[in-house]
Amino acid sequence: MSDYEENESKFMRKAKENPFVPVGMAGFFAIVAWRLMKMKNRGDTKMSVHLIHMRVGAQSFVVGAITIGVLYSMYNDYIVKPREEQKALKEK
Fold first, then answer.
1. What's the pLDDT score for residue 2?
2. Mind listing the pLDDT tens digit of every residue in the chain (92 residues)?
3. 66 and 84 in a common domain
4. Is residue 55 located within the same domain as residue 25?
5. What is the pLDDT of residue 1?
6. Are residues 21 and 6 in the same domain?
7. Together in a domain, 25 and 37
8. Quick one: which H or E segment has residue 36?
9. Residue 11: what pLDDT?
């Protein structure tokens, strides 16, 4: 197996384990692309301020996606699985 195939399968495995990581990555790249296109219409805003706003927006999206992913994981681990285990015990 080549390194490329190994990395691709590793990415797909990680994406299945935590589906919000690819969402965060896509949002990051979308915000960066949008702010780069908007750069030519920035007016009197300094370049450094524009780049800081772009970074903050992209980081906020990624942190939000990770937070939602963690909450989803906690919901599955602490609410859904115990209910399924209780149902399985009641059926026996």
1. 65
2. 566 666 677 778 877 877 888 888 899 999 999 988 988 887 888 989 989 999 999 999 999 998 998 898 899 889 988 888 888 888 87
3. yes
4. no
5. 53
6. yes
7. yes
8. helix 20-38
9. 77
pLDDT at 88: 84
Contacts of 65 (CB under 8 A, 6+ apart): 20, 21, 23, 24, 27
Q: How far is CA 48 from CA 31, 33, 54, 61, 92, in A?
A: 17, 17, 10, 20, 65
C-alpha to C-alpha distance for 50 and 63, rounded to whole angstroms: 20
Cα distance between residue 15 and residue 69, in whole Å = 11
DSSP 18: -
- 52 and 82 assigned to the same domain: yes
75 is in which domain, residue-wise? 45-91
Q: What does the alpha-carbon distance between residue 65 and residue 27 come to, in Å, rounded to a whole number?
A: 9
Residues 23 and 54 in one domain: no
Q: Total structural domains in the chain?
A: 2
